[in-house]
């Protein structure tokens, strides 16, 4: 479908971008790989697009493993993959970014757009809203829910959070910086997301008129890794992805952050998997136990039981990868 | 296509009216309802309009396509793909999914392969745009290698593959088979002629080396 007509501004500074975004019904446009497709499907119809890629200050990777790394929201995914600092010290993020979409998508899409892309739930993308309720009934529960959540399913939001990058970034303890008409604020990346309670509420906490400017990852300590399971090698989102960030004392795991993708309407922190691991030596057995702990309270829908075992496997393999073990030999 | 391109958006007339009738009329209309926030936003928007040009309706643009400066008129919503095909008669890039999910429209913007169906034409001004029309069709070129290695069946995906392949070889002239697979995995062939495509890519790398 042809997009509805809109106005277009391409400011060159953040200040001008904020001003241009202050007009009603304005949306930021970065790579366009999410927004333009939603507009073609008539799920979004902003009256003004403010193109952010000409704001050069928004792009770039700075810093090092020792001092932490800052990634501008306008940085292309291809540039994240090209960053030696990210590759060497934050393999959880590097690996996940490398696997997003396709080479063309990574040449277009930005880190900010990736974090703020809207859910891929097919009910949402077909205009039924985030909760997809009709006459008090959940279309997701009644219909095809194979790609929907297995956690938080006693609520009404059953879609899964779409951003691959959010999961390793949260595991690594990254913060996001947002500027708006009232100034700047910095928040943990996980606070960008929420499970909406009504169809009016968005799953993102960023307000209209605000711009995500950067994410900051603290200095790299310990071991981190991601493992994702997909139906296809490219052209698709992961079905399940696990990112882990471990602090080791000797061989014992003293702290762990384990994040999951594809299982809940928000990036899902598995405290159960973390608890199963902390205080133990990382091994095939403890990795497997953590994987099983991760899904102990899962409540799959009618068609996505398969995600439960995929989640166990993803957690186990992410942990073994972080520990430098070859999961395929385990 | 042309009629769709120029179809006005419902409600656009109100906005056009605001702009056309000047600031005084605009503020009278907006400040009528007691909505301070909206008012402030509108004021800021007007300010921004002074500083940042806001394009709407028919926009004159210049695109550098295959080494030539091309002038045309588009709307902000026109994609690079539709502009190339319908305005500039550059029909190499194909429109298949129109959703950034198949690769048929692959075009080089500043040397990088992107999906032109999901790129706005207005955002490409000042950039170098290359389509396969500009590629070497001689014995050392990528198109020839596709021809020689049965890299196509119906041929609809071929321009996208040829373009992605050229971009890959520009960056990495000696790719391994694995690297070719990764470089081309943003393109889909519905006929399934992948074996020929991979052979073609490796053959093109070889002939470009002059081996
Ligand atoms: C075939 C295909 C496969 C894909 N596979 C994956 C995958 O495996 N994993 C994955 O995570 N994603 C995947 N994606 C989605 C893709 O990664 C996202 O569409 C992309 O990252 C969005 O970035 P963008 O710059 O193009 O954002 P845009 O489309 O420009 O914007 C997306 C949203 O973010 C807002 N926005 C953008 N930048 C800012 C900013 N700086 N401040 C405030 N708001 C902003 C926009 O207003 C818009 O609402 C895939 C997409 C396709 C088409
Ligand atoms: S037509 Fe652009 S990716 Fe399919
Ligand atoms: S040759 Fe027919 S789609 Fe590829």
Describe the structure using short key phrases:
heterodimer, A: 330 residues, alpha+beta, Uridine Diphospho-n-acetylenolpyruvylglucosamine Reductase, domain 2, Uridine Diphospho-n-acetylenolpyruvylglucosamine Reductase, domain 3, 13 helices, 14 strands, 22% strand, B: alpha+beta, Ubiquitin-like (UB roll), DNA polymerase, domain 1, 2 domains, 9 helices, 44% helix, binds FE2/S2 (inorganic) cluster
Structure description:
The complex is a heterodimer of chains A (330) and B (211). By secondary structure, chain A is of the alpha+beta class. Chain A folds into three domains: 1-56, Uridine Diphospho-n-acetylenolpyruvylglucosamine Reductase, domain 2 (2-Layer Sandwich); 57-116 and 161-217, Uridine Diphospho-n-acetylenolpyruvylglucosamine Reductase, domain 3 (2-Layer Sandwich), CATH 3.30.465.10; 223-329, CO dehydrogenase flavoprotein, C-terminal domain (Enolase-like, domain 1), CATH 3.30.390. Chain A contains 13 helices and 14 strands. Chain A has a five-stranded antiparallel sheet with strand order 4-5-10-8-9. The longest helix of chain A has 17 residues, at 306-322. The relative contact order of chain A is 0.13. Chain B is of the alpha+beta class and 211 residues long. Chain B has two domains: 56-134, Beta-grasp domain (Ubiquitin-like (UB roll), Roll); 135-211, [2Fe-2S]-binding domain (DNA polymerase, domain 1, Orthogonal Bundle), CATH 1.10.150.120. Helix content of chain B is 44%, strand content 13%. Chain B has nine helices and six strands; from the N terminus they run ααααβββαβββαααα. Chain B has a five-stranded mixed sheet, sandwiched between helices. In chain B, a hairpin with a 2-residue loop joins strand 2 (59-65) and strand 3. In chain B, helix 6 (142-148) crosses helix 9. The longest helix of chain B is centred in the N-terminal third of the chain and has 16 residues, at 36-51. Chain B is elongated. Classes of the chains: A alpha+beta (330), B alpha+beta (211). Strand 1 of chain A pairs antiparallel with strand 1 (54-55) of chain B, so a sheet runs across the interface. One FE2/S2 (inorganic) cluster binds next to loops of chain B. Flavin-adenine dinucleotide binds at residues 27-35, 52, 73, 100-102, 105, 108-110, 112-114, 116-117, 163-165, 211-212, 235-238 of chain A.
């Amino acid at each position: 479908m042809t997009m509805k007509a809109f106005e277009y501004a391409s400011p060159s500074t953040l200040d001008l971008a904020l001003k241009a975004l202050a007009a009603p019904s304005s949306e930021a446009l970065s790579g366009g790989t999410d927004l333009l497709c939603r507009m073609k499907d008539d799920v979004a119809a902003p009256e003004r697009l403010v193109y952010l890629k000409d704001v050069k200050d928004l792009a770039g990777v700075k810093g090092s493993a020792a001092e932490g790394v800052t990634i501008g929201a306008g940085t292309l995914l291809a540039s994240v993959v090209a960053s030696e600092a990210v590759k060497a010290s934050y393999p959880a993020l590097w690996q996940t970014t490398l696997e997003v979409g396709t080479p063309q998508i990574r040449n277009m899409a930005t880190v900010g757009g990736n974090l703020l892309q809207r859910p891929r739930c097919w009910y949402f993308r077909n205009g039924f809203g985030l909760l997809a309720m009709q006459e008090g009934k959940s279309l997701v529960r009644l219909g095809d829910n194979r790609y929907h959540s297995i956690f938080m399913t006693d609520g009404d939001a059953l879609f899964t959070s779409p951003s691959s990058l959010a999961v390793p970034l949260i595991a690594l303890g990254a913060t996001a910086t947002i500027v708006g008409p009232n100034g700047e604020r910095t928040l943990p990346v996980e606070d960008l997301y929420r499970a909406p309670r009504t169809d009016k509420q968005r799953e993102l906490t960023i307000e209209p008129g605000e711009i995500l400017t950067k994410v900051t990852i603290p200095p790299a300590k310990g071991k981190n890794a991601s493992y994702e399971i997909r139906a296809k090698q490219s052209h698709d989102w992961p079905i399940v992805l696990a990112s882990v960030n471990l602090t080791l004392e000797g061989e014992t795991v003293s702290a762990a952050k384990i994040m999951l993708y594809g299982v809940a309407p928000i990036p899902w922190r598995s405290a159960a998997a973390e608890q199963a691991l902390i205080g133990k030596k990382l091994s095939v057995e403890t990795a497997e136990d953590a994987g099983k702990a991760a899904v102990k309270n899962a409540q799959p829908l009618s068609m996505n039981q398969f995600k439960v075992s995929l989640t166990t496997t993803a957690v186990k393999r992410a942990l073994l990868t972080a520990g430098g073990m070859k999961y395929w030999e385990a | 296509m042309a009629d769709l391109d120029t179809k006005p958006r419902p409600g656009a007339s109100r906005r056009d009216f605001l702009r056309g009738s000047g600031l005084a009329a605009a503020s009278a209309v907006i400040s009528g309802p007691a909505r301070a926030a909206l008012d402030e936003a509108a004021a800021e928007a007007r300010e921004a309009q002074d500083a940042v040009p806001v394009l709407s309706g028919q926009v004159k643009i210049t695109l550098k396509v295959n080494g030539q400066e091309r002038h045309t008129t588009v709307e902000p919503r026109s994609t690079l793909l539709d502009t190339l095909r319908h305005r500039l008669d550059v029909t190499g890039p194909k429109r298949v999914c129109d959703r950034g999910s198949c690769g048929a429209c692959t075009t080089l913007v500043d040397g990088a392969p992107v999906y032109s169906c999901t790129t706005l034409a207005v955002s490409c001004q000042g950039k170098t745009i290359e389509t396969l029309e500009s590629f070497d069709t001689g014995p050392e070129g990528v198109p020839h290698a596709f021809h020689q290695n049965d890299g196509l069946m119906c041929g609809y995906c071929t321009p996208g593959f040829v373009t992605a392949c050229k971009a890959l070889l520009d960056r990495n002239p000696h790719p391994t088979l694995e690297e070719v697979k990764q470089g081309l995995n943003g393109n889909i062939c519905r006929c399934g002629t992948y074996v020929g495509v991979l052979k073609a890519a490796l053959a093109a790398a070889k002939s470009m080396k002059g081996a």
